[in-house]
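FIELD: query
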Amino acid sequence: MSAAPLRVTDLHAYYGESHVLHGVTCHVDQGEVVTLLGRNGAGRTTTLRALLGLVSSRSGSVMINGQQAIALPPHRIAHLGVGYCPEERGIYASLSAEENLQLPPPLAPGGLTVEEISEGLAPVIVQTLSRTIRRLRERGYTIVMVEQNFRFAAPLADRFYIMERGRIVADFAAAQLQAKMSLLHEFLGI
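FIELD: result
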């Protein structure tokens, strides 16, 4: 059994003097789609940015494909096989969703992080993104997804982590989704 492509232990992150992440611990197994859930400001995006070295200061452990990445700059982390599709609209309209996702340098099947990719898009485009995420998983890619649209994320994810105030407060598998609806309502208003 190989190590998880992403293993995060006691991750703390700071924006200047503001302590934003407080001991985040999570993992993502090979070929898994994991969704970070939480209200705005819960720490989901900061978690992705901290994994990629895009915050001013971080501590803890971030193991990517068996290598410690906590002290590495973002360009070195990218070379470990991690891609990032941020929330900003830096896409090429003439390309399909899949072509936009394939623009970064080729990644070894292992990592791809995506953030709020369905926000503000027409339903037909959201369906295309959903098919693209499924195809990437079928090809062995490991995906960490931050997504506000629970209806989009729920059928795609293998596991969920719920964040609140910079901490992981719950995690569960997709098979437990129905049993966790009261928890989702408590933390997300779903």
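FIELD: remark
Helices lie at 44-51, 74-78, 97-101, 123-138, 150-153, 181-188.
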